[in-house]
Amino acid sequence: MRTFLAILFFALLASACHPPQRNFLKAQGHHIVNGRGDTVILRGMGLGGWMLQEGYMFRLGFLGRQYRIRACIEDLVGEERTSQFYEQWLANHTQKADIDSMAAWGFNSIRLPMHYNLYTLPVEEEPVAGEHTWLEKGFAMTDSLLEWCKANRMYLILDLHAAPGGQGNDLNISDRNPNNPSFWESEANRVKTIALWRKLAERYAEEEWIGGYDVLNETNWGFEDSTDFRGIAERTNAPLRQFLVEVTRTIREVDTNHIIFLEGNGFANNYHGIFPKWDDNLVLSFHKYGNPNVQEAIQQFLDLREEHNIPLWLGESGENSNTWFTEAIELCETNGIGWAWWQNKKMGINQPLEIKEPEGYAHLLNYWSGKSEKPAPEDALRILNEWLENLKLKNNIFHPDVVDAMFRQVHARNALPFVKHSIRAGSVVNAVDFDLGRQRVAYYDTDTASYHYTPGMNTQGNRGHSYRNDGVDIRPDSSGYHIFDIKDGEWLQYTLEIDEDGLQRLQLEVSNETDHGRIQLNINGTLLEQPISVPATEGGQHWTLIPIEIPELAKGDCVIRILAEVGGFNFKSFRFGR
């Protein structure tokens, strides 16, 4: 017993002398590491649309900025109900269930795009000029989000997306009102921003699951040349460097633990004049949209990493097809770079969660764009309330293809069923439910991604912008969805489970404006000898069934590939018979 007590005493003494290693992320050479010194690849998601609405997220690109969206809502239902709408928006959009889901999908970090007006008053509204009124709302929301992240062992990175005054000429991303002085035209705005970061750093200095501070999102400003609207050609970026140095110094007065993420001018791509480093715990954050996923696309950042011995982080990317997502993430991780995607939910298909349009939403869009009469207040309120309900995770449309592309497909070259197909006589397989997997693994399409920032590359991915985010072109019809714009050589694969013997007939449901379409069928690696001609049906919704005799299928797994030897037709489904 005495021996046991002695061992216990010395164990406790050793523990007291060597307290547990703290787990703050930090910059170490070319890598981000945790408290144990292990390299951490951040795999994150940005919560766009929560604290800061951008019009395009909700088919409101013609309005753009949040303050304009808010004014339009106020025009419909009044100031009080508009305030209630925005309170409920913040409560519904992102909840613990959202963070739990992202953790389950594979994300290990969250990037929070903050709007300053949830934390402090605008400069022009301060009761006493030069002072800072602090608003509890933003801090309380951040506290809750941090608790949700901690429960899932996820890092939370704070990102000032909308700074006082707005930090760029792209007005939408910072909710900037061009009638007021910008961030760069007003010292008071910059002072308030630095004070906000000090306040945040004081609050979270000892929080190990805060991953770091992304102190200013996507500056796009011509400092030396005002005609350099996006700040892409700026050669010195002196005001930006000065701000970054000053905000770092202020944060370090109260917080020496956390990474500070640096974003250059030109939407975080122009780093002229930003270096040399002034702190040992900095990470360079670049953004990447719509360009090819080749080494040359990120070489300038790899060179900066080498020259200044600083880790890289792809702090924002997305808004593209699954093929582009897989390739971009693979490019990053191959080069030891973590990433944060943009964004978790909005209207549309190219993110994990889709917010459904409320019934009657088109009426609001048409009124706000000057195309229809003003809806009655009670109708507008009903639409707005449904929109609020549709924000909740339980009412979102989940896109498993997007998540699969961001995680499994980065490392795997096999296909999986998109849905479970248990096949018996009479079973119908929808054409749009082809397998999950990479281009040339689960499907082949001649146009799989959007290169909207690359001259001469006029591609889109899914031209119907419906149902799935792969390269296959899908659009809705009166009874579901179908595949259209089928080009020569494109194909789709379906992994099925055959539940009964004796199936030896297929019927392909197609429509065609011409009689030039031709299909080849491959079953379990064996090509049917005769191609199948697709007859003319007047196209559109004029569907016909093409009967095909096939070798009898045995029970068990079956893989069918349907190839358009000659395209031009539409494809809706296929069904099985005896």
Automatic annotation (TrEMBL):
Gene3D superfamilies: Galactose-binding domain-like, Glycosidases. Keywords: Glycosidase, Hydrolase, Signal. It comes from the Bacteria. Pfam families: CBM_6, Cellulase. Residues 451-577 form the CBM6 domain. PROSITE patterns: CBM6 (PS51175), PROKAR_LIPOPROTEIN (PS51257). The keyword Secreted does not apply. The keyword Transmembrane helix does not apply. Residues 1-16 form the signal peptide. InterPro entries: CBM6, Cellulose-bd_IV, Galactose-bd-like_sf, GH, Glyco_hydro_5, Glycosyl_hydrolase_5. SUPFAM superfamilies: (Trans)glycosidases, Galactose-binding domain-like. Belongs to the glycosyl hydrolase 5 (cellulase A) family. This is CBM6 domain-containing protein.
